[in-house]
Amino acid sequence: MSQYASRLGARRGRALGPFPKPQRLRLGAPRRPRRVAMLSVHTSPLHQPGTGDAGGMNVYIVELAKRLADINIEVEIFTRATTGALPPTVELAPGVLVRHIDAGPYEGLAKEELPAQLCAFTHGVMQAWAGHRPGHYDLVHSHYWLSGHVGWLAAERWGVPLVHAMHTMAKVKNAALAEGDTPEPAARVIGETQIVRAADRLIANTDGEAAELVHHYDADPGKVAVVHPGVNLDRFRPADGRAAARARLGLPEDALIPLFAGRIQPLKAPDVLLRAVAELLDRQPSLRSRVVVPVVGGPSGSGLAKPEGLQKLAARLGIADVVRFRPPVGQDRLADWYRAASVLVMPSHSESFGLVAIEAQASGTPVIAAAVGGLPVAVRDGVSGFLIDGHDPAGYAEALARFAADPELTPRMGAAAARHAQSFGWEASAAATADVYTAAIGERRRRLRSVHV
Ligand code: UDP
Fold first, then answer.
1. Phi and psi for 280 in degrees, rounded to 5?
2. To pair with 429 at 20 to 30 A between CA atoms, which of 14, 32, 99, 310?
3. What NCBIfam families has UniProt attached to this entry (predicted)?
């Protein structure tokens, strides 16, 4: 009997009284799933991260899925088709398939409009599933609350566990909004609360995020597992060093280069970096000729409302001559930007982990980061960089001044940063995620067993 049928039997039996005795279930020792349905409704693992809706979650899904496939867990990633030209399926890597689901018009739908397309998306997922034998997917792993809602129904229908990762949470974001930024709507809070209740397991990036799930959403602590995200250590490594990377990017060899990389939106506070640079140059005007501030990434989220906002701010602050805006780049190129930088600056208001912080460190570059969310886990204060409390540009200017004053600080902290990053490989994240899957499957089997004895 399939898991689905046995589950149905159990449910009907409970609700309506005696039913024909279900066939004997074969419930062996907990095992790893063979195939996982991974859900990423609003953004595709095939999109370029660093702009729009594509960021750390996309990288997370790609890297996790590949490493799961390496340990014999096949992954099928369901995502919304955003152009008509996409084939129904794309093989991302051996054992990792991306399935494009038609749900709403291809273009012109903002993430905020996607709740109205969740039924259509779920329909597409169910259609894909209907083409397989029962038991095709052993588990659903949903990412972000929109996917959680689809996963909730799919997992229940298939009789398999739902493992969910929030990535970001409305209540956490709203508690740390940048000045004038738009709060997340109540509907998202309600949706997240429902998923916390429905999921068999919740994966949090850090202990802090686990505590937030319990505190803000009343999650059962026994359901929350902490799995640190990783970094691709083959791609992000010091390689041939800072001077060579600067030469490739056409950057001056002896410049002070504080780098911002990622989605440009108020939550990420790139404005704090620009204000800090302006403050530094006010204090030490002689530095101007040897400061370059690259901003690599594109507008995203509420930053889309003012796509030129940061450029205008640079002009207002009188530092347009030192800031270089660059569109998002592929990760191999991004690794060169990290290597070239004196320091990566991440003044975010909220950050569930902060992949760029760990990627920069793996590339041999220290980090100045706000002490929020996962960043105190990603950055070792005083060793691989500096953590700053709050968002006063003065604190960031002071930290930048230390790098300006001591040219040895970047290589010294950079070496420590590269060592620190070694403990964040995606292999470890995938192994820990597989353990969460096994635990969720085991628990479900125990529950089924108790119903059937
Ligand atoms: N990124 C990229 N190209 C860019 C800028 C960023 O590929 O030009 C990637 C970067 O490597 C990182 C991700 O975007 O993996 C951003 O992740 P992070 O956790 O820092 O922020 P999020 O987008 O999740 O808020």
1. -60, -45
2. 99
3. mycothiol_MshA
Ligand 1 shell residues, CB under 6 Å: 49-50, 55-57, 59, 261-263, 296-297, 328-329, 331, 334, 353-356, 359
State which ligand 1 atom lies nearest to the alpha carbon of 348.
25
- Encode pLDDT of 118-131 as tens digits: 999 999 999 999 99
Q: What dotted CATH number matches 34-230+426-452?
A: 3.40.50.2000
Return phi, psi of residue 184, to 5°.
Answer: -70, 145
Report d(CA 99, CA 112) in Å as an integer.
22
Distance 418 CA to ligand 1 centre (A): 18
**Model pTM greater than 0.85?**
yes
Query: For atom 15 of ligand 1, which residue has the closest CA?
Result: 56
Rounded Cα distance, 381 and 372, in Å: 12
Q: What pLDDT is attached to residue 28? A: 60
**For ligand 1, what atom is nearest to the CA of residue 328?**
8
Same fold, 34-230+426-452 and 241-424: yes
Mean pLDDT of all residues in 255-276: 97
d(CA 189, CA 349): 19
From 59, 63, 351, 426, mutation site for ligand 1 pocket: most ligand atoms within 8 A of C-beta: 59
Nearest C-alpha neighbor of 277 from the set 156, 431, 397: 397
Distance 223 CA to ligand 1 centre (A): 28
Ligand 1 atom index nearest CA of 261? 5
CB 91 within 8 A of CB 53: no
User: What CA–CA distance (Å, rounded) separates 396 from 417?
Assistant: 19
- Is 49 labelled as part of a ligand binding site? yes
Query: What DSSP designation does 183 have?
Result: P
Q: What architecture (CATH level 2) is domain 241-424?
A: 3-Layer(aba) Sandwich (3.40)
Per-domain boundaries in the chain: 34-230+426-452, 241-424
